[in-house]
Structures are given as structure tokens and as C-alpha cells.
Amino acid sequence: MLVLYEYIIMKPVIIRMPNKYLPDTLLILKLISAISIGFIAALMISCKSPTTSQNNPDPIDDYYVEFIDSTPAQDKSQFQVEFDTTIHIKNDNFRIYLDNLSNMDSSVLKIMKNGKLTQNDTFISWEILDVELIDFNLDGFEDVLIQNWGQFPSAHTYLFNLKTGTYEYIVNFENFTDVKQIHAQSLYYYSYSRAGCADMNWYSYLIKIENNKAIPIALIEGNGCPPRDDSEKLNIQIFKIFNGDENSKKLIKELPYDGTLRPYEDKWDYLEKYWNKNFRSFL
């Protein structure tokens, strides 16, 4: 009589057979057992986590170091943005195109009016996400925005000037993120930026365009992060900025955070309402 065990439920299974067959059966079972043990050992070795030595760095980490320090030219092509179009405004034709330089590190935006070059500006290629033609200042004419890579949306901005009949670059506009226009006011805008604590801290600039330059004239800082000690407060502070210099700002008003933002009202709604209603008080 031969007694076997089922390994999963550990219950004995009795097999009755003549004694003359027992030696051969035992030999087969030993072979099966040896093969099973070998298979399990090989499986355990294959599942063992690979080790990384200094002579054989992790390929993912090595790729990012390569990209930051010295990305091969053939790899940079995937970061190139190409753009070429012609638009018609009044009686003029404007060709707008982004030309990548041979070293693939720089790109040149060229704007031509009736075949004559009017803009020729150079940008770092890998900072460019896209080129857009949109009516950014809502005057009825398409403007040119070079959108930048990054966590926060910003853009190099060219606004069409109907008086001069040309596209004009707005200096410093790219330093403000998520910019929106004050209603029906083509020269005034406001921004939004995160300031940490899972976006519970934030700030927003009121911006004026003057002589083709974006100038901050007011600032709202929202501090909604739970305080770490008694020195920190949940509040919203409103500042006036003098001469476009943030170091020359004056606190105009301080409001409680919870009481200022109404229930079910988010900060974007609050900023839109506040800036559109009060922007003239900062002029």
C-alpha cells in the first residue's frame, strides 16, 4: 500500500496496488519531486530583485541625466515644435513660422508682413510647448502665443496692434501664469499661481500693459493652508504695487480666509469677481 499526500489540503490519499509495482512507482515519484524542487528554485531566483552597481547604472536614471546634461542631437528632435501659417488681416498678409536652428537647441519665431520681416526672436527649443493663434485680448484679431512647458501655463505673447498694423511683443508677460483678461479691458489682466500646500496657498497679480510691457500693479495672496503655529494665519491679503516693483508694495486689506470665500465658491470665482469689480481702484 502506498500513501501519498496532497500538498494543498494536506489530506492523505491511499492508493492500493500490488507490491511488485511499488519500486517503479516510488522511482517515478522521486523524479517528479526532484523536477518540482528544481523548478521552484529557478522561479525563486528569477523573481529576486536585480541589483544595480555603479558600473551598471539604472537605465531610467541614466536617461534623465543624459537628457539634462547632454542630450544627443538625434534625441532632441522629439522636442522640436514646428509651425508655419499665413493669415490675412485687413489688406495685409502675415506669415508666422517657427524655425528650428541646426543645433536643435534654439528656435526662431519669424513674423513677416507682406514678405517683409517684422519679428525675429530666438527661444530655447525645449521650453516651447506649442504655438497658438488666438484672439487673446478680444479685439477681433488673432494674436500669437508661444506656450511654454511647465506645471503652470505661461506664454510669450505677441498682440496685434491695429494702429501700427504689426504684431508687438509684450515684455515680461511670460512671467505670469494662467493669465485672463479683465472684462472688456484690453490693457488689464489678472493671473493665478499656486504657492504650495496642495494649492491651498496661492497668489494673483493684477497686470497692466503699458508701452508693450506687462507691469504688476496689485497682488492678492491667499493663505489657506492649516497653520503650523500661532504665528501663521488663514487669511487673504491684498496689496497695491508701486512702480511695477513688488518690493514696493503696500498692504491695503487683510481678510479672513474662510469668511471671504463663500461656501461653494472657489478661489477662481472669487478672483474673477474681485478683480473685475475693483481693478480701477489700483490704477
Walk me through this protein's architecture.
The chain has 283 residues and is an alpha+beta fold. Among the domains are: 80-169; 179-283, no CATH class. It is 20% helix and 41% strand. The chain has five helices and 17 strands. Strands 11, 12, 13, 14, 15, 16 and 17 form a seven-stranded antiparallel sheet that branches. The chain has a four-stranded antiparallel sheet with strand order 3-4-5-6, with no helix packed on it. Strand 16 (235-242) and strand 17 (245-256) form a beta hairpin. The longest helix is centred in the first third of the chain and has 25 residues, at 22-46. It starts with a strand and ends in a 5-residue tail after the last helix.
What is the C-alpha radius of gyration, as a whole number of Å?
A: 34 Å
**What structural class do the secondary elements suggest?**
alpha+beta
The oligomeric state is: single chain
What is the count of DSSP helices, taking H or I runs of 4+ residues?
A: 5
Summarize it.
The chain has 283 residues and is α+β, with helices and mostly antiparallel strands. It is 20% helix and 41% strand.
Show the helix and strand layout.
Blueprint: E1 2-6, E2 11-15, H1 22-46, H2 59-70, H3 73-76, E3 83-89, E4 92-100, E5 106-113, E6 116-124, E7 128-134, E8 143-148, E9 155-161, E10 166-169, E11 180-181, E12 188-190, E13 193-194, E14 201-210, E15 213-223, E16 235-242, E17 245-256, H4 257-260, H5 267-278
Antiparallel strand pairs: 1-2, 3-4, 4-5, 5-6, 7-8, 8-9, 9-10, 11-12, 12-14, 13-14, 14-15, 15-16, 16-17
Features:
283 residues, 17 strands, alpha+beta, single chain, 7-stranded antiparallel beta sheet
